[in-house]
Structures are given as structure tokens and as C-alpha cells.
Amino acid sequence: MTPNRAELFDHITEVFASTEPMRFASRDISLQKHAVEELTTLTSTLKDVISLAADVDEDLANQLLSATCIADSLMKCLQMWISLKEGEADDAWDNLVESQMAANAAARAHVWGHRFAQYGEWLYAIEKTIFPAVTFVSSAHDCGRTLCSICQADYSACDHIAGRSYAGKFCSQIVLEIVNVSHVAIVDEPADKRCRFMGYNDGVPRTSYRTCFAS
Amino acid sequence: MSASEFASVSDQAIALSCNVPTRFALLPRNFERAASYDELRHEASTNTFRKLLRQNGLDETPIERDGSSLPHSVEHALTWLGPIIFVTAAYFSERPQDLELMIRVASDFADEYFRGFVGTKEARLTIVVETNGKKQAKCQRVDYSGPPEGLQSISETVRRMNEYQ
User: Fold this and answer.
1) Alpha helices, DSSP H only, in chain A?
2) What are the backbone dihedrals phi and psi of residue A124, each rounded to the nearest 5 degrees, phi first?
3) What pLDDT was estimated at residue A204?
4) Residues A25-48, mean pLDDT to the nearest whole number
């Protein structure tokens, strides 16, 4: 049975409308934790519906994937504030980065996700104003054969494109072999902002770059 | 954007026991300086770019030996690194519009790569065109590095460079 698009998106809009206002620092932590629970339930439901839609309506499955990414992004954003309030600065950073990555993925999954472009910019502004400057690193390596995550065929032989969504799933390359690890570089714009210098040793226990607190 | 000379692609292909391109080919990132076939490494984008070209009706002469594939280098900086696109003199003079199409495909690919990202976006692409010089054919390269929206401007530079030869 094809899931009803209008009903589904009414429900998604309803959940977003009740949880989205919690994405600000000043909101009460218990309300933010409750919103995380609501979004967790929503993403779990959406994942089930995506698998139902995948065989009958590819566009709907991709739109639902986009909605799942936004729900995931909101959830991670809330977890960022919760982590900060609980004194877990490194977890907060990782949550922010995962929130940004999920918002980006929403835009790639379906055109529906493009409406959240301003939200993506807001997350970027949070990165620049809430956290201190970060030194990022990027690893480089040489890969051998890769498989397509959609059809499991040799990636060079099929027609799927990595990064695009197909029936509610993102296509990616599954690396079968790493031929050589080349180097690690310090970069301004890494693909994954979780790759960073975490702390330093200056004769005392390691000091966190994020909190300047030695632990 | 910068222009400079590139090693003879056919000579280097023969030296490395690669297939010699007859129309166009995607060259490994270290094609010019590799001392052996085993050293060759493609950009991470090459496999996907090949598929996109195929889907646009453009079939290359792969430089890989028949039935073999080359490793690709993966870097995790947020930069779109396109492959080196090589076009033979004969193919370029017969079908200059195909190079424009390749550059458009590259530009769309880079746009898609950065979709949703906020921050500084950088794309890099190199085009190598064989030109019929007065005495012998030579290869010229055009390197682009900048925002992905500027990739399309390579077409005009390559066209002018070819007219100048």
C-alpha cells in the first residue's frame, strides 16, 4: 500500500512545529530532552515508512529521506545544547557537526530539503559564534576497488551516482581495499569537521582545546 | 586560472604501457610525473565523472590497460577535485562542443557535491588539450581553482588558447 503523502507530511510538519522552537540555547533543558524523544520517535516511524514507499513511489521515499535528515539534524542540534549545558563541550561540537551534515544531506536527498537552506546557514553561524576556532585535519589515502551501496555491483560498472538518493537510500562507495595511507594535512575546510585537534599536553594532563580545562 | 605546457600524453602513455587515448581520456592526477603504471592514481571523483559522461553520451578511451583499474586518491578536505580531462587535437577540432559538454558536466557535478554546504567552496579542474603546432603536436594545460560557479569559464580559455596556437 502506498503511504499517503499529504497525511505523512502533515504529521511531519506538526512534529517540526512543536520541536523546532526548542533549538535555542535559552530553552529549558527538560523541554529540549522531550523534543529529542519526539524526534527520535518520528525518525523511527519515517524509516519504516521509507521502506514501504521504496518499492512503490521512489520520489516519496526520497522526500521522506529528506524529512528524516531534517529530523535528525534538529535532534542533533538539540543534543548540542543539552551537551553544553551538561558540560560536555566535545560532545556538543560533534552534535553540531552531525546536525550540519544531516541538514546538508536533506538538501541532497530531495528538492523538498532546499527549503531548510536558511536553517543550514543558522547552524553555520552557531559554529562560528558559540565555539572557539578549531584546527581541522584531513586524512588522505589511496583506495582500490569499491562497490555501490545500492546494487552491490562494482561501482565503476553500475549507473548509480554516489551522493544521490535512490528509493530512500543514499548511494555511497563501499571501499574494499585501502592501498596506501598517504598523509594527514591541516586544512581550513575539512569534509568532516569532527576531524580536529582535540587537546594538547603541556606537562600536565591533556588540556581540551574546547574548554581549556585540563583533564 | 593558469595555462602551461603539459607532457606529451601519447609519449607518456606509451612509456607507462597505458592505452593511448584516441578521442579523450580522464588522466590520473600524477600522470605526468609517474615513473611506472603501478604509481598511477586517479582522483576520487574519476569513477563518478566517467559515469556522468557516459550518461551524457560521451565515451572516453580509458588509459587503463584492458580489464584493469587504477586506485584512486581520497582526500577529506572540502574541495572538489576533478580529474584531468585530456582531449586529442583531432577530436577537439571535430567536436569542440564535446569539451564544452564535459566542462558543463564537471560544473554540475561540483554544484551537486557542494549542495547544502555553507562555507568556502573550492573546485579544481585541469583540461589538457593537444594542439597541432607548426612542427609537432604539443599539449597545453589549463588549471582552474576557485568557486564551482567559475568552472564554466574554462571553455572560453581553452577555445582562445587553441585559436592562439
Assistant:
1) 5-19, 29-53, 58-85, 89-109, 117-130
2) -65, -40
3) 58
4) 96
Chain B hits for A180, Cβ within 8 Å: 71
| Neighbour count for residue A29 (Cβ, 10 Å) | 14
Ranked by mean pLDDT, which of A192-201, B115-124, B128-137 comes out on top? B115-124
Residue A83, sorted as left (phi over 0), alpha (psi -120 to 50) or beta, turns out to be alpha
A184 neighbors A138 (Cβ within 8 angstroms): yes
Instruction: Give residues 111 to 130 of B whose Cβ lies within 8 Å of A.
Output: 112-113, 115-120, 122
* Number of other CB atoms surrounding residue A1 within 10 Å: 6
Q: Rounded to an integer, what distance in angstroms lies between the CA atom of residue B117 and that of residue A195?
A: 17
Q: Could you tell me whether strands A136-143 and A199-200 are parallel, antiparallel, or unpaired per DSSP bridges?
A: unpaired
Residue B110 phi, psi dihedral angles, 5° rounding = -65, -40
Q: Which of B50, B69, B75 to mutate to test the interface with A (most CBs of A within 10 A)?
A: B75
For the entire predicted model, the pTM comes to 0.89
Say which amino acid occupies B31: F
